[in-house]
Write a structure and sequence with these properties.
about 160 residues; HSP40/DNAj peptide-binding domain; elongated; 4-stranded antiparallel sheet; 2 domains; single chain; 6-stranded mixed sheet; 12 strands; mainly beta; disordered C terminus; about 40% strand; 2 helices; Alpha-Beta Plaits
């Protein structure tokens, strides 16, 4: 029976060349307490003080001092291109959808409903498989999380209301 190693902290940008590695998709890299299995089979209990968003190249630090490198796993994405990329970006952001903005295309997680809407706006939508690392939020925290408008909020976000 193997012993489970504990990880209590994160070392940013310290995962390159780590002796252990774990592959996680975008959602999997958002964690506080979870059991993981490294590529070598090492069992890890992640037990952090608060929820964090891990990036490719970060590391979990085990109690033994060993670093476990974080590798962004490939996952189903949509590559979006079109004549008016700014307009397409606005519609994606208006739906609070995480998005990777590149020079000639946008990348979002697979979403058939959003794909149809974007195609209706003239976009070319191509399914691909790649690691997903969307833009950070407005305040640079790496995640854009949904937000509550409270019980009496009455503002809208363009095409839809909350």
């Amino acid at each position: 029976m193997s012993t489970m190693e504990r990880a209590h902290r994160v070392a940013r940008k310290a995962g390159e060349g780590a002796p252990e590695r774990v592959r996680l998709d975008y959602e999997g890299r958002f964690l506080r307490r979870r059991r993981l299995v490294a590529e070598s089979g090492l069992e890890i209990l992640v037990d952090l003080a608060e929820t964090v968003s891990l990036d490719h190249g970060d590391a979990l630090v085990l109690e033994s001092g060993v670093h476990v490198g974080i590798v962004a796993a490939e996952e189903p994405l949509l590559a979006i291109a079109g004549k008016n990329l700014a307009r397409l970006t606005w519609h994606i952001g208006n739906r609070h959808t995480p998005c990777r903005i590149e020079e000639t295309r946008l990348l979002i997680r697979e979403d058939p409903v959003l794909a149809r809407m974007l195609e209706g706006l003239g976009a070319t939508v191509e399914p691909i498989s790649a690691p997903f690392a969307p833009e950070g939020g407005a305040y640079g925290h790496g995640r854009t999380l949904g937000h509550s408008h409270g019980e009496h909020a009455d503002h809208t976000h363009g095409a839809h209301e909350h």
